[in-house]
Specification:
The complex is a heterodimer of chains A (304) and B (195). Chain A has 304 residues and is mainly alpha-helical. Chain A contains 12 helices and 4 strands; from the N terminus they run H-H-H-E-H-E-E-E-H-H-H-H-H-H-H-H. Chain B has a single domain (17-177), classed as Ribosomal protein S10 (Alpha-Beta Plaits, 2-Layer Sandwich), CATH 3.30.70.600. Chain B has helices spanning 3-8, 23-35, 53-73, 100-116, 164-174, and strands spanning 38-48, 76-81, 86-92, 123-131, 137-143, 148-152. In chain B, strand 2 and strand 3 (86-92) form a beta hairpin. The termini of chain B are far apart. Classes of the chains: A mainly alpha (304), B alpha+beta (195).
């Protein structure tokens, strides 16, 4: 919509980098599939297993994640403010209302689950509900709802399909490694294993990169949805400060699903950027600051 | 939302749907005559107030225009911010002479000037107040994104409860006069309506 672009500018750079990442992932996977086909029969079985796993992941992971993270669905009576915020954002975003859950932990965080808009769940921890002001909480929930709108769970699950396949092949290789067939066949198997290792390593980096771009896109979506980029900035600063001080016991419980959290539980500054699935805080704040200045100055400069 | 939008992770906030705001001006006639639902004489428009000088000056100009036109028919304007950071612009008919037509014209003036200034996607909804024969408060809410109406009947008291039964009765009573939101899960409640 024209008005939006006028208020918030364009995000061409981000779009280009995301496209490049997707392209590289696609290229990698095409080569991988080519090698698997060349290797022939045994690979077919592995592909079937991987597809089954993928479907299981898409259709069953919600409930598993909900149970693992201790999500508890709350009614509007129990959490009137959270429901009020989400109701309004859903009207704004023209989105069916997702399930609203609370995680009873002091660690301030929020997450979104679900492969489609209809089956979506958004959750906030008790800590974040207590810590943030309504406007900040709105920014965070808008970030999570943008993940739902962009179907990020679906995109990341599908994008990581071949990476899981490569991992699967490596596991198979360890179980049934070597010792049968002729030299020719053995060499072929070694090649598949080598390629799998490379695919796994490269796709790992690319997937992390993709995940970071989706985070930037969700931050941007939140700013566009609420019209208050600075409220989200302020929330991110508050949350990240508290995450570093939070006890590790609680953090361990939420480990494993960090890609869907607004701030990853164990992000340390020493962690190399390349392997982080969330962009560093400074970069997210800088991006939000650009949005705020576009919002503040965009219209007047356009008219001058 | 297309595949391209999913891949790029880009979405735009939807702007207002084709305007069906004025449907209320014909729908309420039957409601009043046959079902004893009277207009309460107040209506409000709810939107996100952007904290920019451009937006504030748009709102200020708009308030003056609405106050000026309201001067002719006695409609008064009041502005309030709620705890969610949304702004309510409340229009009231003069006591004893509630006019849904004047209120709709006023609400429409506000929404169109917000749209003209390029902030159309900030509009949340418009609310028209009614009371039934038992003095129960009834609201009709207009969702700008969907271009559709739905009834909202909060149960009096502090508890956030709504009378879905009464809302469904009202839907049947307005019949085809009002474009009612078909998906009932999108009948989002608005608690603490100040009108």
């Amino acid at each position: 919509m024209a008005a939006n672009r006028r208020n918030f500018g364009k995000d061409t750079g981000l779009q280009a980098r995301m496209a490049l990442t997707l392209f590289l992932l696609g290229l990698l996977y095409v080569v991988f599939v080519g090698v698997l086909f060349a290797a022939g029969a045994g690979a077919g079985l592995i592909v079937v297993v991987a597809v089954v796993l993928l479907l299981g992941q898409l259709f069953g992971s919600d409930k598993l994640a909900m149970a693992a993270m201790g999500l508890k669905e709350v009614t509007p009576d129990e959490e009137p403010e959270l429901h009020g915020i989400i109701d309004r954002l859903c009207v704004q975003a023209d989105l069916p209302k997702p399930r609203v859950c609370v995680i009873e932990t002091a660690v301030p965080n929020a997450c979104a689950l679900g492969r489609s808009q209809k089956s979506a769940t958004v959750a906030a921890t008790r800590g974040i509900l207590q810590m943030l002001s309504p406007a900040e909480l709105e920014g965070v929930m808008a970030h999570e709802l943008t993940h739902v709108i962009n179907r990020d769970v679906m995109v990341m699950t599908l994008a990581s399909f071949f990476a899981s396949l490569a991992a699967l092949i490596l596991q198979f290789a360890f179980f049934f490694g070597g010792g049968y067939g002729g030299d020719e066949e053995e060499r072929e198997i070694m090649l598949v294993i080598l390629v799998s290792i490379v695919v796994y390593a490269v796709s790992f980096v690319l997937l992390r990169t993709l995940s970071r771009y989706r985070e930037f896109a969700a931050d941007r979506g939140s700013a566009v949805l609420t019209g208050r980029p600075s409220a989200l900035s302020s929330a991110l600063i508050k949350i990240s400060g508290a995450i570093e001080q939070a006890p590790s016991q609680d953090l361990r419980r939420v480990e494993g699903s960090s890609a869907f959290f607004i701030i990853p539980p164990r992000a340390k500054k020493s962690l190399m950027n390349l392997f982080a699935d969330h962009p560093p805080l400074e970069q997210r704040l800088a991006a939000l600051e650009r949005l705020e200045s576009q919002l503040q100055g965009g219209l007047s400069t356009a008219r001058a | 939302m297309g595949l391209r939008d999913i891949l790029t992770g880009r979405h735009q906030v939807k702007g207002p749907a084709p305007d069906r705001l004025f449907a209320i001006t014909t729908a309420y006639v039957d409601l009043q005559a046959e079902h004893g639902v009277d207009p309460s004489g107040s209506a409000a428009i709810v939107f996100q107030a952007l904290a920019t000088s451009e937006f504030e000056s748009t709102i200020k100009d708009m308030e003056e225009v609405v106050t000026a036109t309201g001067g002719d028919n006695g409609t008064t304007v009041k502005t309030e911010d709620d705890s969610y950071g949304y702004r309510w612009m409340i229009l009231r008919s003069p006591p004893g002479a509630p006019s849904v037509e004047d209120l709709a014209v006023g609400i429409n003036a506000v929404s169109s000037s917000i749209e003209t200034a390029g902030f159309g996607e900030r509009l949340l909804c418009a609310v028209f107040g009614f009371t039934d024969a038992k003095k129960q408060r009834i609201y009709f809410i207009y969702n700008y994104k969907r271009g559709a109406w739905y009834p909202f009947v909060p149960v009096p008291g502090d508890a956030q409860e709504r009378s879905v039964e009464r809302e469904l009765q009202l839907k049947a009573q307005v019949g085809s006069e009002l474009p009612v939101e078909a998906e009932i899960e999108r009948w989002f409640p608005l608690w603490g309506i100040p009108i």
